[in-house]
Amino acid sequence: MGTIDNRWRHGPTRRQALLALAGMLAGSPLLRAQRDPHPITGHKRVPGLDEMMTAFDFEPICFANVVLARYEYMARASESEFTLRRNREAFEWVDLVERPGAATAALQTSTEVLGIKMDFPIMIAPTAAQRDLHPDAESAMYQGASAAKTPMIVVGRSTIPIEKIAQAATGPRWSQFYPVQDLKISRETIETFQAAGARALVVTVDQQTDTGYERDLHNRNLGGTPRGASGGRGGGAPEQGRGGRGGGSAAPAPMQGPALYRVIPARLWYTWKYLDDIRAFTKIPILLKGILTAEDAKLCVERGFDGVIVSNHGGRSMDYGPSTLEVLPEIVDAVGGKIPVLIDGGFRRGSDIVKAMALGASAVCLGRAPRWGLGAFGPQGVQRLLEILQAEFLEAMARTGRTTLAALDRRAVRVNFT
Which domains are seen in the chain, by residue range? Predict the structure, then answer.
């Protein structure tokens, strides 16, 4: 039997061919033959910017826009991430006390912190690696913040030069600064920030140990690159590098000394004397970020610093620590109104901000949430997210019956931190 005859012998029959054609037509979406069990097409598309209802709506779109390693760098926290979760859970332990009689149009939400006038007690916290989320990085964040009339604290190790960020918008800015042991370098850096228009200096004083990110170990089983021994569980200074996006091919050097315990020698030298030294050439107010105890807050007042930021680095600094909202009242009491007390850590809703203000905060700093807006929709996403939180703040404040921030005191909430 020839080749052609053999193909004919083993080929489909006319009946089989017709059945295959019928099956293809039955499954064709063009003929609307195969019905979707969830026929609402809106379920299958990405929502638009004007459809965002809460800050949480931005996160899945941000997640879809960036690669996993870059998203996880932003999302992760120390060790088991207990502190990350506790930051959010703490808001469930504070109830708003509802009272009638306040319309949102009658509310006065403007305030002033260290000479910065703002329509709402909300600021953008300093966060690293914003170029991972948008090509224009911190400039895009600044544009969105300024459009929403929200001051921004620019991270000290920004992914683009501070001069370029300063040109991107006109809103008020502070600059964040990690201490550098060399006073000459410290002075040059701070003077650069001042020359670029920073109106306050935020010195981060926590994170003196390297952080173990257990999430990295879990994610490497989902396609990530295994890390060398030198990477440990966190790898490098957590906010200076990417800490776990994959290692090189060279054999890692064995860990020894403080590195065995994830201690960062480059930060263990932090002293009050250093802070006094840099104050000599800093011409703008200085705030210390990373304060979590009343004792440290009192020292800040005694040593003449201009403000504090209650912060646990979004849970990235130390696991099994308190939430920032829990320690806020004792720090406010310790300061006694002598300097402003700002706070960050897990803020996602306008009601969260109302609770912090009722417990004595001067303003609230937002870290991860604006990053979701930036990664989802760019500067417009940052603006929209902030405007959502501002509207939520007005609604929650109105429910307390308070019409001014000064009237928003501890009687506006019921607290159960025990």
Answer: 3-44 (no CATH), 54-208+267-415 (3.20.20.70), 214-261 (no CATH)
